[in-house]
Amino acid sequence: MTDPTAALPLDAHLHTDLSPDADVPIDAYGAAARERGIAEVAITDHLDFDPEGPAYDYADYGRRLRHVRAAGERWEGRPTIRFGIEMTYQRQYEAAIRAHLAGHRYDYVVGSVHIAKRDPLRSGATAAAWCAGKSHGEASAPYFAEVEAAIRSGLFDTIGHLDFVKRYTVAHLGPFRYEDHADLYDRLLVALVESGMALEVNSSGLRQAAREPYPTPVVVERFRALGGARVVAGSDAHQIGSFAFGLEEAYRSIAAAGYRSLSFRRGRDRVEVPLETDLVAALARR
Ligand SMILES: [Zn+2]
Ligand SMILES: [Zn+2]
């Protein structure tokens, strides 16, 4: 990896081989983070509450906890490895999610809406039929209704990949622009401001069909204009080659919107991870 990434303080969204759709041994992240000068990472393996979800009962809490804590000891703080989770939010399982969080400690919790295997958007042919004659807003309405409910649940530190649905819709509907759907985005952003949760800038969209982060820089700027105080960044890697991929671009978007820290949680402590002046300057130059 010869990516000229500047030393970044945090990648807050990573999947190991304890996620059903990832194959990365946790120590590979330790090595990659040390090599790239990324000081802190959050392991956020998937947890589903829908019995049909791939991460339902995939790896139990104790196993995930030991996996991360043991790696944390092996890497001795270079990088620091945090025990996070990415919970798939679905309204019908909100009570179960709440109960899980009441009984299990994490350093950091991402709440995300995913597209279930049975959803028409998951395969090209059915997605084309679903999108036919619809606007982006119409085609994505079920997804965004769940995202809004996830925000209003107040359960999470951050909402992961806010507009991830565009991974499945851009092939049929073209680019999904904030300017064309300002009402839709603003509704979510205002809810997020009210919730106090962080907006995650997730760079995985840069390597997927959308070819842009979830969400784009204009949405990050808009979030700040609406009073959003907290943002965070993650590469959402599922393979080692995607570790920190596009992360610098996510940071650039955050810095350009005027933020000077990332919002994160380390167990009991909600913290602001500063973006040092020289990093902000380097991001602006590139
Ligand atoms: Zn996700
Ligand atoms: Zn993820």
Characterization of this structure:
With 286 residues, the chain is α/β, with parallel strands linked by helices. It has one domain (10-285): TIM Barrel, CATH 3.20.20. The protein contains eleven helices and ten strands. The protein has helices spanning 26-36, 61-75, 94-103, 124-131, 136-139, 141-153, 166-173, 182-195, 217-225, 247-256, 277-285; strands spanning 10-14, 40-43, 46-47, 80-88, 108-112, 158-159, 198-202, 231-234, 261-266, 269-274. The strands form two sheets. Strands 1, 2, 3, 4, 5, 6, 7 and 8 form an eight-stranded parallel β-sheet that branches. The chain has a two-stranded antiparallel sheet with strand order 9-10. β7 (198-202), α9 and β8 (231-234) form a beta-alpha-beta unit. It is globular and about 55 Å long. The structure holds zinc ion (2 copies). One zinc ion is lined by residues 13, 15, 86, 236. One zinc ion (ZN) binds at residues 86, 112, 114, 160-161.
The shape is: globular
Per CATH, which architecture?
Alpha-Beta Barrel
Indicate the low-confidence ranges by residue numbers: none
For the secondary structure, the number of strands is 10
Distance between the termini: 18 Å
Percent range for helical residues? 25-40%
Please state roughly what percent of the residues sit in beta strands, choosing from under 5%, 5-15%, 15-25%, 25-35%, 35-45% or over 45%.
15-25%
- Which value, in Å, is the CA radius of gyration? 18 Å
Order of helices and strands: EHEEHEHEHHHEHHEHEHEEH
Q: Can you count the helices?
A: 11
Oligomer: single chain
CATH topology: TIM Barrel
Overall mean confidence score, pLDDT: 96
CATH class: Alpha Beta
Ligand roster: zinc ion
Q: How many domains comprise the coordinates?
A: 1
Q: Which structural class best describes the helix and strand composition?
A: alpha/beta
Largest sheet: 8 strands, parallel
CATH superfamily membership: Metal-dependent hydrolases
